[in-house]
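# nightly structure sweep
# worker-07 picked up a monomer target from the shared queue
# config: single-sequence mode, recycle default, output format = structure tokens
# input follows
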Amino acid sequence: MKRMAMLVAAGALMALPLAPAKAETPPDTLVMAWQFDDIISLDPAEVFEFSAAEIMGNTYERLIGYDVEDVSDIFGVVAESWDVSEDGRTITFQIRQGTKFESGNDLTAEDVVFSLQRAVKLDKSPAFILTQFGFTADNVEEKIVQTGDYEFTFEMDKAYAPTFVLYCLTSTVASVVDKDLVMENDVDGDLGYEWLKTNYAGSGPFAMRQWRPNEAVVLERNENYAEPTPLTRVIYQHVPETSTQRLMLERGDIDIARNLGPEEISALESADGIKINSGDKGGIYYLGLNQKNENLAKPEVRQALKYLVDYEAIADTIMKGQVQVHQAFLPRGFLGAVEETPFSLDVDRAKELLAEAGLENGFSVTMDTRNTPDITAMGEAIQQTFAQGGVQLELIPGDGAQTLTKYRAREHDIYIGRWGPDYQDPHTNADTFAANPDNSDDAAAKPLAWRNAWEIPELTEKTASAVLETDPGTRATIYQELQKEVMDTGPFVIMFQEIEVMAMRDNVNGFVIGPSFDANQYWKATKE
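# output follows
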């Protein structure tokens, strides 16, 4: 009956925009309008998309966490403490006692070991965060081993920088799932995969109750969490239109609007009962150029396209207040981040480069573009400036799942994307923009360099060396060199770093905009 009542409430909220009178959301419920058509799964071993990752961050607990105000401050969450062996290859973790899953089951080392092993065995998109330490489906049971009720060992193939390892264990793929509950739903040895895509087995502040693709996600307070949330539930409503989000917020149909454009934000800044919150994010907007396309594979063409984007105009108009021009793969604030911006719109220089590539008459190419207002507008602006250089760009719109699926299969020409760090160590972006250990179509690791078919053995080797370097200054120098090489020759037109902006009713407090896409926190949020 409790769940039925909650679902009826959710259904009523979905209908609110049609009501003629001003609405008001329930006092114990936070309602957000957001475009989340990129959700493919809610299994933490598979989640690798922005929207789902935020949900994971509020519903599951991980081994390690960090202070969103000071990411250098690392602390244990599920892990209470840890020790690194003398040779640097093994970390022994002590698990915090007394934690319970939402199911009521105790969280022990057995659950942690199962969760990490399961992620490696399933080998979904984020598995590389763990497999980069030498784990495989064949050896993981011998390398990640329970040694006590609340203790396990994590044996790696090399002595990596300890902070690098710990940052990796703050990521979504290190979320701890309830082994007993998951295995009750195992079908033909799938480790509960089909079930967990749409169900919940965590210990975080909220429990995931329902996901209706492109409609709604409903979360409910986890009564077994150490500090029960002030709010009973959180409801995400899928609302693609920014103007509709603004109207719903003004009417009181929702508490937070998540996808507003510059015009809506400007109009709401002086609106009664509404406030604007923003925070720097690690998200990077870029164009991925598939090297399977013979024209895009020419280095002169790659550089020419970097001179055919009007970065400043897009940042000052279409994405005003939501991005800052940034052209290196490490976001500002990361160790070794490069802040130079050597590229600007220069049509003459672009034409010279195209002529050097034997394409003095230009060429035609397609770009897969997620059909959100901001990405669509950026795509159209890039289409116009490309045309000035003789590059005829056809936009292929699609929802988040469609465009991502095509991109991950290397079936694109150009993809306009947004990439967020999986953890707060510089290797997270270096390993995807500047490393590609296997360029074959059936490669085990599929970073962004692989998605764009960029074969780079020397850069890959250099990237791998950086995580073994314990001196921060030397590490920073390596990452600076990697960024400059990618800026000069890589198949990426890196354009902006994200600023997340949201408008909310002024009675909402305690919503934290974190630095990463999975670090937005609302388990302490209240409504006065």
